[in-house]
Design a protein that fits this description.
The protein has 449 residues and is mainly α. It has one domain. It has 16 helices and four strands. It has a two-stranded antiparallel sheet with strand order 1-2. The longest helix has 33 residues. It comes from Phytohabitans aurantiacus. NDH-1 is composed of 14 different subunits. Subunits NuoA, H, J, K, L, M, N constitute the membrane sector of the complex. It is an enzyme of class 7 (translocase).
Length: 449
């Protein structure tokens, strides 16, 4: 049986300089290729969902269309607004792209392998707080968007940048709390160690019962998984949360004044952020580079060698499909509803879930079985009593239109007709009168004198 060797923190920092450069170049090429294919993939999938052909002219299946669009955009005129801050205007899209690529450097793409005789991990680097490094890069990307909107020297880009910063910062709170459950369960903030902790078949003890861990944290920590996915969509400014690009105005938000390569850099940063968030969801909740359980049951070497590159790429593509699926299915949310979802729904649920998980962890480790069962029974009884004795507030019946009309003060603006029927126009009344016979309303001929 072939067993994959999980990298540890001691395995990093010993690679030769040429291998480090090769890993950095490989990560850059991976992000660039995933961006090009991601644009093509999105346009093809949305076209299929809209029952139309989509890209099918440039290259087989339209694969060269994204490359052609990129070359065309690069050769377009680079327009610099007169009122723009030229230095900040130039560096803003660069900041967003660099932060997106930097986040991919701590994503584990496989176990320990041999490259030209050197044993190394399929990961650029790893530190004890790798997940926090990803969130730091995500927070720095906000500066690129805000500075891009401010440096344009125009009103609409400034409003789009501020709206985007408020959106990304708000959903970073829910996203940061959702990974607390992962830290508590895995016991580490290192990405390689989180992947190693998701090995299926590990024994766990839960309230005196010896169980087998399900492996993926998407199953074990499903509330955190769902909240993280929702927050990731809001963090990347994707539909139905693509409010910074345009809410009601016919402009592109913080990218309004950008053109040529600078505009392409902003577009690339969005898709690189999608790839980075998909890789983070895969690493934290979907087992990382490990193959799904049905494959490992009949193939012992599925998690060894270079095969894990295939599994993690497939998982990233599936998550990208979810991003595209949401765009093709859901309409854009209103901004106040979107912010209310983040602060008044996701945040309280996340806090309650963390408290419940912490209580379960304390009961499982520091309390004996008898006291644990008594505490669990008391919590269930208290929850049932609270549900039964909770006072129910009945809403008063809604007043009718007649009651609302009578309650209006004298001299107020007149109400429309109660049946909401607009009286016909004079032209319509004349047309009705012309169609009616002349003796309408007259007595029958036998009764006339």
């Amino acid at each position: 049986m072939i067993v994959a060797q999980d990298p540890t923190l001691q395995d990093f920092g010993h690679d030769p300089w040429w291998l480090i450069i090769a890993k950095i170049v490989a990560i850059f090429v991976f992000g660039l290729v995933m961006t090009l294919l991601g644009v093509w993939f999105e346009r093809r999938v949305v076209a299929r969902m809209a029952v139309r052909p989509g890209l099918n002219q440039a290259g087989p299946f339209g694969l060269l269309q994204t490359l052609a669009d990129g070359l065309k955009g690069a050769f377009k005129e680079d327009i610099m607004p007169r009122t723009a801050d030229k230095v900040v205007f130039f560096f803003a899209p660069t900041i967003a792209v660099i932060c997106g690529f930097t986040a991919l450097s701590v994503i584990p793409f496989g176990p320990m392998v041999s490259i030209f005789g050197h044993k190394t991990a399929l990961q650029v680097t790893d530190v004890p707080v790798s997940v926090l490094l990803v969130f730091a890069c995500s927070g720095m990307a906000v500066y690129g968007i805000v500075l891009g909107g401010w440096a344009s020297g125009s009103t609409y880009p400034l409003l789009g940048g501020l709206r985007s910063s408020a959106q990304m910062i708000s959903y970073e709170v829910s996203m940061g709390l959702s990974i607390v459950a992962v830290f508590m369960t895995a016991g580490s903030a290192s990405t390689s160690q989180i992947v190693a902790a998701q090995r299926s078949g590990q024994p766990i003890s839960f309230f005196g019962l010896d169980l087998t861990a399900p492996g993926w944290y998407a199953i074990l920590l499903i509330p955190s998984f769902l909240i993280f996915c929702i927050a990731a969509v809001g963090e990347t400014n994707r539909a139905p949360f693509d409010l910074p690009e345009a809410e009601s105005e016919l402009v592109a938000g913080y990218m309004t004044e950008y053109s040529s390569l600078k505009f392409l850099l902003f577009m690339m940063s969005e898709y690189v952020a999608m790839v980075g968030m998909s890789a983070m969801v895969t690493t934290l909740f979907l087992g990382g580079w490990r193959a799904p359980a049905p494959i490992t049951t009949f193939w012992a070497g599925a998690n060894s060698g270079w095969w894990p590159l295939l599994w993690i790429t497939a998982k990233i593509v599936i998550m990208l499909f979810v991003f595209v699926w949401l765009r093709a299915t859901l309409p854009r949310m209103r901004y106040d509803t979107f912010m209310r979802l983040g602060w008044r729904v996701l945040l309280p649920i996340n806090l309650v879930w963390i408290l419940v998980l912490a209580a379960i962890k304390v009961l499982r480790e520091d309390v004996d079985s008898t006291s644990r069962n008594l505490i669990l029974a008391g919590a269930i009884v208290a929850a049932l009593l609270a549900a039964l004795l909770w006072p129910s507030k009945k809403k008063p019946p809604a007043p009718t239109l007649e009651e609302l009309a009578k309650s209006r003060p004298a001299g107020s603006f007149p109400l429309p007709p109660m049946d909401l029927q607009v009286p016909p126009s004079p032209r319509a009344r004349r047309a009705v009168a012309e169609r009616e016979p002349a003796n309408v309303g007259a007595a029958p001929e036998g009764e006339q004198e």
